[in-house]
Amino acid sequence: MRMTDGELKKYRFPATLSNQTRWFGLYLDELLPTATCLGWGLLTGKQLFGLGAAILSFWAVKRLKKGRGSTWLRDLIYWYMPTAILRGVFHSVPDSCFRQWVK
Question: Which superkingdom does the taxonomy of this entry point to (predicted)?
Fold first, then answer.
């Protein structure tokens, strides 16, 4: 059973399976630190410093990812950040210190 062109128009097919949504041209993991720095700079009246911090944070995230996906950065945060900080973020997985390697 084949679908006609009219039936296919109601579905959205991404270019790749790992196609992520972008906000203002940035992926979400790049946007959050950048927007936080920009917002902080605007609220404190230090716009130039906030812009510089936003550029540095964007560059640092891009450098950390090095062409890898956002899931790699999330996994890096899970393994190396303290559990007390991430307790509200990772609900369904155990603390990284209690995980065991599965062969």
Answer: Bacteria
CB 29 within 8 A of CB 61: yes
How many whole angstroms separate alpha carbon 60 and alpha carbon 26? 14
**96 and 77 both lie in a single domain:** yes
Which amino acid is it at 28?
L
Angle at 94 between CA 92 and CA 98, to 5 degrees: 170
Q: Are residues 78 and 56 in the same domain?
A: no
Q: How far apart are the first and last CA of the chain?
A: 42
